[in-house]
Design goal:
- With 170 residues, the protein is mainly beta.
- It has a single domain, classed as Lipid/polyisoprenoid-binding, YceI-like (Lipocalin), CATH 2.40.128.
- 6% of the residues lie in helices and 59% in strands.
- The strands form two sheets. An eight-stranded antiparallel beta barrel has the order 1-4-7-8-9-10-11-13. Strands 5-6 form a two-stranded antiparallel sheet.
- β5 and β6 form a beta hairpin.
- The protein is elongated, with a radius of gyration of 17 Å.
């Protein structure tokens, strides 16, 4: 089993929310963590355990709009809950070897919940892998009521997409 370290400068997260007026998007880098896995011929080895951890600072969630960012920071309570963290507990291959079902946990706004989703894994070179996936989350499951900003109503379902680039540790 090898450890792959997530490269914060090359890993990105996008969060897309809908509102009564227009879409709201957060895009940031800075994901940190690791993946412990056995990779054989560009795929995770069948029967070999795969685990990992990922985190990002909550205050990195910015839209670029000062009014939205103020409300987002207030709702996320970034000082009280400074990190959004995820853990990978198991991974199952789906079909041909590039798609996987990931089972784990997400800690967000002081609430930890079991999550599952599908990801695509590919080797960028012999030492670097890329994992991409997306999932829709209901903010209310994590104790957050969607904000109302002036006349703008934000809906509770947000789409989170991640591109994680990790490099084999020496």
């Amino acid at each position: 089993m090898a450890r792959f370290r997530i490269l914060p400068e090359r890993s990105r997260i996008w969060v897309d929310a809908r509102s009564s007026l227009h879409p709201i998007r957060v895009e940031t880098t800075g994901l940190r963590g690791h993946l412990d896995a056995t990779v054989v011929d560009g795929a995770l080895a069948a029967g070999s355990p795969t685990t990992g951890a990922i985190e990002i600072e909550a205050d990195r969630m910015k839209t670029g709009n000062a009014l939205y960012d103020y409300e987002l920071e207030r709702r996320l309570e970034a000082r009280k809950y400074p990190f959004i963290r995820g853990s990978v507990q198991s991974v199952q291959a789906l079909g041909g070897g590039q798609r996987y079902r990931v089972l784990g946990q997400l800690e967000f706004h002081g609430v930890t919940r079991a999550v599952e989703g599908e990801v695509r894994l590919r080797m960028l070179d012999e030492r670097t892998l890329e994992i991409e996936g997306e999932r829709v989350f209901d903010l209310r499951e994590y104790g957050l009521d969607p904000p109302r900003i002036l006349m703008l109503k934000v809906y509770p379902d947000v789409r989170v997409r991640a591109q994680v680039v990790a490099e084999l540790e020496s």
